[in-house]
Write a structure and sequence with these properties.
The protein is an alpha+beta fold and 292 residues long. It has helices at residues 32-37, 41-57, 63-82, 100-107, 121-132, 139-143, 204-211, 216-224, 235-250, 267-274, 287-291, and strands at 2-11, 17-26, 146-151, 172-173, 185-189, 193-198, 258-262. The two termini are 40 Å apart. 26% of the residues are buried.
Length: 292
């Protein structure tokens, strides 16, 4: 173990100054296998993301290539030093970093880094600033947004677990448009916001049974102030909202997540689909192609 101490001088009342001592113990090792075993992927991804954002702001045009090279170098180091006896044609990833290629491929598709005229300057700047100040706790959901099936809800989703105010969550699906059925409703959580995505072929009768909505636009109006439409919301809709609150409770230390409805055929739908990490976006490859 390596011990670090930081002394901070803090002004107090009556002209006095107090000394605050921060002590941190860090484990050290000479074994490279232990380094990979205990690597925390969110911390690594957060660092690489901020390095890419800093390079982009400084005008370094090769930052995406450096991002990919950093990923390749880490995995090559593991292959060479910790798994050299495996077949040369086999993809070997350390357990702690098995999602790193997926995360790197997703970062390359961020509005901050993606080339193309479909990205507005304002969106690019917002994405860059968000990347530079991103808390580690938001790294994973922002890089790979969670997609929950909201309709049809699983049997226990939205029902209290019996522990505090917690409820059971519905299962997630892969972040790819190919995995999204055209007649379902999904909740997409990117750590910053929660978006209820109504797919194009959801029957109007379903929307009326769930929310009491006579049109697609009514769904957004009703869910913007659900307390005012409590009488029209079905039990399943109440369970959907309970799942939204569950996600917010789990991130109570982080900024409050806004919640809104995304309707088919709107500009926001394009942004939602572009955020799906496993799909192709602009000139950036889909995840399967990126691995190759």
């Amino acid at each position: 173990m390596h011990t670090c101490r930081l002394l901070a001088s803090i002004p107090a009342k009556k002209g006095k100054r107090l000394i605050r001592v921060h002590t941190l113990q860090l484990p050290v090792t000479s074994s490279l296998s232990n380094v990979f075993r205990y690597t925390e992927i969110d911390s690594v991804t957060n660092l690489l993301l901020k390095q890419a954002a800093d390079s982009a702001l400084s005008g370094n045009g090769s930052f995406k290539d450096k991002l990919t090279k950093a990923c390749v170098d880490m995995l090559h180091a593991y292959r060479s030093n910790c798994a050299s006896m495996t077949s040369a044609g086999q993809l070997i990833l350390p357990e702690s970093l098995k999602l790193l290629p997926l995360y790197i491929g997703s970062i390359r598709k961020f509005p901050a880094f993606r080339a193309g005229s479909d990205i507005k300057v304002d969106d690019r700047i917002v994405s860059l600033i968000r990347s530079l100040g991103l808390p580690i706790g938001l790294t994973s959901p922002l890089v790979y947004p969670r997609v929950y099936t909201m309709h049809p809800l699983s049997e226990r989703a939205g029902i209290p677990t019996g522990i505090g105010d917690n409820v059971f969550m519905p299962p997630t699906v892969a972040g790819s448009s190919d995995k999204l059925a055209a007649d379902r409703i999904y909740l997409i959580d990117n750590g910053i916001s929660l978006r209820l995505y109504v797919r194009p072929e959801v029957d109007q009768e379903i929307l009326y049974q769930l929310f009491g909505a006579e049109t697609l636009q009514d769904v957004a109006v009703i869910l913007s102030a659900p307390e005012d439409y409590a009488d029209s919301l079905s039990e399943e809709a109440e369970r959907m909202l309970a799942c939204v609150q569950q996600i917010r409770r789990e991130r109570w230390r982080l900024p409050w997540q806004s919640f809104y409805v995304v309707l088919p055929g709107t500009p926001e739908e394009s942004r939602v689909l572009a955020s799906l990490a496993e799909d192709r976006a602009g000139a950036e490859s889909a995840y399967v192609d990126f691995l190759c």
